[in-house]
Amino acid sequence: MQKIIRIGTRDSQLALWQANKVRKELTELGYESVLVPIKSLGDIVLDKPLYELGVTGVFTKNLDIAMLNGDIDIAVHSLKDVPTVLPEGIKQAAVLRRDDYSDVLLLKGTEEFFGQPNGVIATGSLRRKAMWLNRYPTHKVVGLRGNVNTRLEKLEDSETWNGAIFAAAGLYRLGIKPEGTISLSWMIPAPAQGAIMVTALEKDDYSLDACEQLNHRETEICTTIEREFLNQLEGGCTAPIGALAYIDSKTEEINFKGVLLKKDGSKKLTVNKTAPVGRHRYLAKDCADYIINRGGKELMAEDEETAEVPLQNIYSTKKLSELQKETLSPAIGIKDSDFIKIRFNRIPPKVMKNEIENVVITSQNGVEALLNSFTRDEMNFKNIFCVGRRTKKLIENRIGKVAYVAKNAKKLADYLSKELKVEEVTYFCSDVRLDVLPAFLKAYDVVVNEVEAYKTMLSPEKISDEVTGVLFYSPSGIESYLKENGTDKVAFCIGETTAKVARKHFDKVEVANMPSVDSVLELVNSYFSKE
């Protein structure tokens, strides 16, 4: 039976248009597919410019998570929104033929304001803001966020704006061609603007083969150069960088032009260079080096030095990676340490002597503890039941197939006792664990053989009074925190089980949409953006 390709997409009108375009082209090639809409942080937080969110891949992160979790097979993006380095395990599957890459200005009134000192233009793009102020230094640029229709409504409702800047492709794809549209041909577009990208898992040969047939080679070459230029300058959503490459069909040469600006538009560095097709390998690097050698790094450093001091300070009760910290808004300061330390026990070999019919594992630590004592071949399990998709993924990658996964311990206990009606389970747990699962099972006469696979040790630390929010990932983390600290903070919790404990102590408790660290960080961004 032919596989149905699940197409992940944001649920905005423009994103759905792009996803449907990919679906239509796949259908024409004989592939079946279905759309799976998923919200992104960029869709949720609409009251701040993108660069203030401080998130690389603000429109793509949730699609990446969905793909790695196995919820979708491919994802459709506006290529200009995609980070230059993709997450491990995900690769570029196709770049469709590029549409109009230019920026356009939608006028609110007449063009007279161009020659006046007090014009007001709206945009959420740092690049567009910097380029506009470089050309019109006495004008004011205000923030504008939301999908295309929302931004058009805000422009219509404003009594002070003279116009707003849009990507031409976004308007034209939705069939929107307002009167008073002016092409900004002097504005160098964002790298890969106007192009649609499809990503897939590196190991998904079926989806990769299907998408390869959608790829437009010329667009792929040009957008790759533009994105490499961006990557070489180490710029993302927080640096005003423009890049455009196109192929001259007569000369078979690639023409490239790039720009780096100071955020206020007061300084600008530009580069123009050509290279024959097939001999363009170092074109992006050469152009980036040209910018850097003329003061590019110093220009970006000036913006860093004048950046605002964080307005909020938060503390994570679990160590975070630098990449995770970078997803937080620049207005949020973050410190972290492990309030919980795990020590794996040596599980007696006799535990594995005979086949264990029903095994229960409720955390990734439980999986790691088992692997610390036994090899995969030594674990003789007939049925494995677990809590959480991440735990399931780890088990299936390193131990064996999972018979059933539940969202929490209560749902798993309910399934085992009422639906499956098992008589006995072996529960690999910590010395510190919630009583929900064993208590519920025992109430239904299920024998629970508890094996202490690891120890959970509290490692509290006194945090500063300046901290306004604390990130919690387990009830044990809360217990550890309370040994040294007060409850006059906002408690950001990874899930409802942790939140239930937090509500006993904290007045303000916020719960992430998904049980993941990234979702907790998105919650923090969203929470403080509303203040």
Structural class: alpha/beta
> Within the largest sheet, what's the order of strands?
16-21-20-17-18-19
End-to-end separation? 52 Å
CATH topology of the largest domain: D-Maltodextrin-Binding Protein, domain 2
Spans of at least 5 consecutive residues whose pLDDT stays below 50 are: 41-59
| Number of domain modules | 5
| CATH 4th-level superfamily of the largest domain | Periplasmic binding protein-like II
Would you write up a description of this structure?
The protein folds into 5 domains: 1-95 and 193-215, Periplasmic binding protein-like II (D-Maltodextrin-Binding Protein, domain 2, 3-Layer(aba) Sandwich), CATH 3.40.190.10; 103-183, D-Maltodextrin-Binding Protein, domain 2 (3-Layer(aba) Sandwich), CATH 3.40.190.10; 216-307, Porphobilinogen deaminase, C-terminal domain (Double Stranded RNA Binding Domain); 312-339 and 459-529, Rossmann fold, CATH 3.40.50; 342-458, Rossmann fold. It is of the alpha/beta class and 531 residues long. The two termini are 52 Å apart. Mean pLDDT is 88; it is low at 41-59.
Question: Could you give the topology of this structure?
Answer:
Elements: E1 4-9, H1 13-28, E2 32-37, H2 41-44, H3 50-53, H4 61-68, E3 74-78, E4 90-95, E5 103-107, E6 120-122, H5 126-135, E7 140-142, H6 148-157, E8 163-167, H7 168-173, E9 181-183, E10 196-201, H8 205-212, H9 217-232, E11 241-248, E12 253-261, E13 268-276, H10 283-293, H11 296-305, E14 312-316, H12 322-325, E15 332-336, E16 340-344, E17 356-361, H13 364-373, E18 381-387, H14 389-398, E19 404-406, H15 409-420, E20 424-430, H16 436-443, E21 447-458, E22 469-472, H17 475-482, E23 490-493, H18 496-502, E24 508-511, H19 517-529
Helix pairs in contact: 9-10, 15-16
